[in-house]
Amino acid sequence: MAKSRFEYVKLFEHHETALPNTWMVVRLDGRGFHRFSALHEFEKPNDARALELMNEAARECMLAFPDIVLAYGESDEMSFVLDRRSNLFKRRKSKVMSTIVSLFSSTYVMRWSRFMRDKEGRPIELQACPHFDARVVCYPTLQNLKDYLSWRQADCHINNLYNTAFWLLVLKKGLTEQEAESRLRGTFSADKNEIMFSECGVNYNNEPAMFRKGSVILWADMEEEVTGQRTMPDGTTKTVTSTRRRRQPVVTAQDMIGPAFWEEHADVFAVET
Ligand code: DGT
Ligand code: MG
Ligand code: MG
Ligand code: MG
Ligand code: MG
Questions:
Q1: In the chain, how many domains are there?
Q2: Mutation test of ligand 1: which of 27, 29, 34 has the most ligand atoms closer than 8 Å to its C-beta?
Q3: How far apart are CA 169 and CA 192, in angstroms?
Q4: What is the ipTM of this complex?
């Protein structure tokens, strides 16, 4: 095809590529979710429906981009780890990042009504356009990747411990938000656990793991039932149900800070030497 005289403008395009042999991590975060969660009356401090919607959007991204080996979500954020050997979009950073965040956002909207329902099962109207910022960071060593995921999971733990104690003091003990804040000021983790236990009757360890640990989404072989029509030798059709194994992204709440997770999933993060 003949080139137009305008074509030279392409020379201005600059594609930053991720260093080879590094783990590309795309992290997205809801913009202004403080307001967005209030507008839609998310349950405090954790809204299981909203977290499951985030997880569903992440699973959809993994199905579209099987190079994603793990996703980790907490609050309004999600991190995607791409296989070190991935050559997705020739490792063009902005293309990888923008495609994932865009698919995530549209899935979040598309699946909203499936997850966001009130106690009577009525759909909650989506009243604003959810959107997410994103960044991509490359981690060269497995230790860096472990530390990155530990950092996010520790962030989840610290915030959730505080938020759970805070909202128990407000909603269960009737303190004002200001009183709850001063009650928790300067406290350590053990103090917060004790306040929840002795003053609110709540054992923090019994809170749902998805709230305490965040969501770790990994590929696993799952058996699924498939029902289909089969034509029999005599020409009649019959409904047949069979099971097949398929790799699917599965949501867990495993601890990534200790060594057990990395031993169990060593194959996923294997580094050839
Ligand atoms: P940003 O990210 O700088 O645009 O601003 P925000 O407002 O998104 O702030 P961020 O990302 O630091 O904090 C997340 C906000 O979302 C925080 O205000 C709490 C809220 N949020 C996230 N998940 C839940 C939830 O499950 N329940 C409730 N009630 N709020 C949530
Ligand atoms: Mg932020
Ligand atoms: Mg945010
Ligand atoms: Mg956030
Ligand atoms: Mg195009």
A1: 1
A2: 34
A3: 11
A4: 0.97
